[in-house]
């Protein structure tokens, strides 16, 4: 089973118990997966430790419903538009399992030594008793996941006859000729199904027994295999009517349907971008806020298809793109420690248009819509960050007709040299969250360009584009 639990690192060695007899002598208690989760989640709630690290913006909405479902022992569906963190949330559930759990050594479906389910393990218990070999499974290996696709088969999920085992001389009626699918192999763990409505309806039917009777059936075999697992699925609301649907009997078998959402606060969106983006150059916090506000504007725009949604991946990619643009400038102009500037974002947005679905009547206006919403985001951040800051020192530079040129390949040194000493710059840096210690020219240039753009948007400076350069004037 593939592990997706990046944060579930090995923190302690497994117990030194290697047989069923030693396990019994240790007073080990067998708990089901849902009982494990219930106990561990209860302990975290009582101690105040977050049970879902890295999940932003769901504290007062989604997470209470998830916690209630887990404590109730329910399988559940996470329902929400793309890029709302459904998969990320599913993968954090593995942290609620015990760090180590005993299994029958060599078992394909991770049977517990006290309660073996497969024929092989039951036979071994009869033959060797307390000498049954025991292994230990880390929780990072107790999470499995499948992206539901139309070509997914019952054999993929449940299992099928293994022709190799038949060729070895076993008869077709022998249950040990079964090759277990993904769900049985996730036994005693958590299994996530992404985009559940994309499963063909006849495949969804195969999940009935797993969710209700907690067993599997393979090609008419007289095989009852009690499964101990938590099943979680994700779905997009539009999938119910467009690409597919979750059939009613299957929805009825899930204990809960939990609706997710995009971050409700700009601050949460900014924290999410800072957490997820892999930045190859410095992107100041005020630019991360611009990206967060811009994404929020897109989600509220009538020109954007809100049924499709605007994924958090859009904001993350925008921040990463700005960092890439800054690194390119640094490489071409031999500038050390390049820093992203507000002028880097418009060019990046061109490459991100494919992440946004526009309404039918907006064909040909996509760039215009993005530019308008970008200006709104910059203006909002400018007012939020620099309201009350005296910017007369900046506007005074332009009273004699002077201009300032900037652009994607204008270095920080060249930009700052055009302005010279600016009264009030320290207050601007403070308002933008740039500390006084070790302030780099790149950070100062990013602050200056942001101020110039803000002054333009508030109609205190003009702005023109000339030969690929942006020229600010009085």
Structure characteristics:
single chain, about 475 residues, alpha/beta, Rossmann fold, 2 domains, 5-stranded parallel β-sheet, 3-stranded antiparallel β-sheet, 12 strands, about 40% helix, elongated
Q: How is this structure best summarized?
A:
It contains 20 helices and twelve strands. The protein has 474 residues and is α/β, with parallel strands linked by helices.
Largest sheet: 5 strands, parallel
CATH architecture assignment of the largest domain: 3-Layer(aba) Sandwich
- Number of discrete domains: 2
The CATH superfamily of the largest domain is: P-loop containing nucleotide triphosphate hydrolases
Radius of gyration, rounded? 29 Å
Distance between the termini: 64 Å
Mean pLDDT figure: 90
List the helices and strands and how they pair.
Elements: H1 20-25, H2 33-47, H3 62-72, E1 76-79, H4 86-92, E2 100-104, H5 119-128, E3 134-138, E4 143-147, H6 154-157, E5 159-161, H7 163-167, E6 178-180, H8 182-185, E7 189-194, H9 201-205, H10 208-211, E8 229-235, H11 248-253, E9 256-259, H12 266-276, H13 285-300, H14 312-332, H15 345-351, H16 366-386, H17 392-396, E10 403-406, H18 412-419, H19 425-431, H20 441-457, E11 462-466, E12 469-473
Parallel strand pairs: 1-8, 1-9, 4-7, 7-8
Antiparallel strand pairs: 2-3, 5-6, 10-12, 11-12
Helix pairs in contact: 2-3, 12-13, 12-14, 13-14, 13-16, 16-20, 18-20
């Amino acid at each position: 089973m593939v592990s997706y639990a990046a944060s579930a690192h090995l923190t302690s060695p497994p117990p030194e118990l290697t047989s069923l007899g030693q396990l019994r002598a240790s007073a080990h208690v067998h708990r089901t997966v849902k009982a494990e989760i219930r106990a561990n989640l209860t302990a975290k709630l009582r101690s105040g430790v977050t049970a879902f690290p890295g999940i932003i913006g769901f504290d007062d909405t989604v997470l209470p419903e998830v916690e209630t479902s887990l404590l109730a022992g329910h399988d559940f569906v996470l329902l929400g538009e793309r890029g709302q963190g459904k998969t990320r949330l599913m993968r954090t559930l593995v942290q609620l399992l015990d760090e180590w759990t005993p299994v029958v050594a060599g078992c394909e479906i991770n049977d517990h030594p006290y309660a073996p389910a497969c024929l092989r393990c039951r036979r071994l218990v009869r033959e060797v008793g307390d000498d049954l070999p025991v292994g230990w499974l880390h929780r990072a290996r107790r999470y499995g996941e499948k992206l539901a696709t139309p070509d997914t088969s019952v054999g993929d999920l449940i299992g099928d006859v293994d022709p190799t085992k038949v060729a070895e001389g076993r008869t077709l009626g022998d249950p040990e000729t079964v090759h277990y699918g993904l769900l049985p192999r996730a036994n005693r763990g958590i299994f996530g199904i992404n985009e559940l409505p994309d499963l063909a309806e006849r495949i969804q039917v195969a999940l009935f027994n797993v969710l209700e009777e907690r067993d599997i059936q393979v090609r008419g075999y007289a095989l009852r295999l009690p499964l101990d697992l938590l099943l979680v699925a994700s779905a997009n609301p539009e999938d119910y009517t467009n690409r597919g649907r979750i059939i009613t009997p299957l929805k009825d078998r899930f204990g809960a349907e939990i609706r997710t959402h995009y971050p409700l606060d700009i601050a949460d969106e900014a924290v999410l971008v800072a957490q997820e983006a892999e930045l190859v150059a410095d992107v100041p916090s005020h630019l991360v806020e611009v990206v967060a506000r811009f994404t929020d504007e897109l989600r509220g725009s009538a020109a954007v298809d809100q049924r499709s949604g605007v994924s958090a991946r859009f904001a993350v990619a925008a921040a990463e793109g700005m960092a890439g643009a800054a690194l390119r400038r640094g490489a071409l102009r031999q500038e050390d420690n390049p820093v992203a500037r507000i002028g880097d974002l418009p060019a990046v947005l061109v490459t991100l248009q494919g992440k946004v679905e526009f309404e039918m009547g907006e064909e040909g206006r996509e760039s215009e819509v993005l530019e308008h919403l970008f200006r709104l985001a910059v203006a909002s951040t400018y007012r939020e960050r620099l309201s009350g800051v005296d910017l007369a020192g900046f506007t005074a530079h332009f009273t004699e007709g002077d201009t300032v040129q900037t652009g994607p390949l204008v270095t920080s040194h060249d930009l700052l040299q055009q302005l010279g000493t600016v009264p009030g710059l320290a207050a601007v840096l403070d308002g933008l969250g740039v500390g006084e210690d070790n302030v780099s020219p790149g950070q100062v240039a990013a602050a200056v360009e942001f101020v110039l753009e803000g002054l333009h948007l508030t109609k205190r400076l003009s702005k023109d584009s000339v030969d690929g350069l942006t020229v600010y004037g009085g």
